[in-house]
Amino acid sequence: MVSGESPSIVLSYEHAASVVRRQAARVLADAATRNVERVAIEAATGRVLAEPVIADRDQPPFARATRDGFACRSADLRAGGLRVVGQLRAGEAWTLGALRPGEAVEIMTGAAVPPGADCVVMVEHVVVVEGHVSLAGPRDLAQGENIVPAGAEARLGDVVIPAGRRVGVAEIAAAVACGVAELPVFARPHVAILATGDELVDVKEVPLAHQIRNSNSYSLAAQVSAAGGEPEVFPVVRDDEAATERAIREASSCDLVLLTGGVSMGKFDFVEQALLVLGAEFFFTGARIQPGKPVVFGKLADTYFFGLPGNPISTMVTFALFAAPLLRAFGGESEGEPRFRMARVEEEVQVKPGLTRFLPARIESHFRGARVRRVGWQGSGDLAAAARANGFLVVPETVERVAVGEIVTVLEI
Ligand code: AMP
Ligand code: MG
Questions:
Q1: What are the pLDDT digits (tens) for 169-217?
Q2: 175 vs 183: CA distance, rounded Å
């Protein structure tokens, strides 16, 4: 960490990621910084659980039949026909006491298996003649067949969902099964978004020939929301050192500050300089990646910041690689790593080694594994290519060539 002098700390992708991971672990451990709010289960998808969800009774609460058929003692049925003494539907309570030898109960999926029965034989495997049920043919009958015992899935008091878990479909269902209609979740962290650049105009304005629409503020807001944050988009900052300092100072009450543009070596790139004057500490000022090489990460007093390169694809990639994991930690999410997965390459890839590449690519999901192929691009400003892509093919720093059929890592945004 350097402060007070112009730093140059350029790290490999892995090293830079480990620096972010270390800070994210600190943020995650500092639970005092997070507020908790309660949300209705209907509005909880995507939020992060602040407390574990606990089973309020055994699951299943009774020995559950998992097939339509006949509940009986397996040894009895192996020996011969059984008298059918009743019928049990899901949601119906059995009141006739324990099953006696020679008896069976017709039972439906989801019903509570009566005491005394140790298996449910499927209706497809039996014949019923004059109130007596017997096996339709030779068949092994195991004890416990087609029954989930009470408490086999979870016991009263067990943690069914740990705190720190992002709520998805399974968590919604599991919470409801525990009787939870309102979930305690962490408040969304506030993220300042500051785009810098004299050439930028808003999407609602008509750009002059030499002007560029400010897409980064919008794409970053979308990425921040997707990572569980509350975006606060600030007005565009002009390429002026004093204006940049002022804007950073105003934004630094947020949990995290994201700047875009102005981090390269140009005469009018003031972001690093402004941060330095304000007394920032820098963890790194570049990473050996493409796109996104000039990415900056540091801390200004208690506020973390990223200076993301202004080229729109660089902005999205560096957010996904570095800012998203830190942001997820601010949100209390315990699994914050970038969204990497594996895919098989469909077309040879050749690059110059020395930088970890994140190449816009089209990833197709398949049951037997994903496939990936590059999309053509004109470099990191090519938003049309980004729209053709749905992820990035990763080529590590030391690799020059990836052959057809090789398995590679892909980054999903
Ligand atoms: P910079 O990082 O400021 O040198 O900008 C690099 C390139 O990205 C330039 O072509 C800029 O016009 C473009 N750019 C910078 N900021 C934005 C933005 N907010 N939205 C779209 N393009 C941008
Ligand atoms: Mg600029």
A1: 999 999 999 999 999 999 999 999 999 999 999 999 999 999 999 999 9
A2: 8
Q: Which of 196, 198, 200, 285 to mutate to test the pocket of ligand 1 (most atoms within 8 A of CB)?
A: 200
Ligand closest to Cα of 309 equals: 1
CA of 395 to the centre of ligand 2 (A): 27
Kindly list the protein residues that place their beta carbon closer than 5 angstroms to ligand 2, a single-atom ion.
Answer: 197, 261-262, 310
* Cα–ligand 2 centroid distance for 219 (angstroms): 17
Q: What is the pLDDT of residues 71-99, one digit of tens each?
A: 999 999 999 999 999 999 999 999 999 99
Total Cβ atoms within 10 A of residue 366: 9
* Strands in 44-162 per DSSP E: 53-54, 64-65, 69-72, 82-88, 103-107, 119-122, 126-129, 132-135, 147-148, 159-161
The CA 312 to ligand 1 mean position distance, Å, reads 7
Task: Give, for 40, the enclosing helix (H) or strand (E).
Answer: strand 36-40
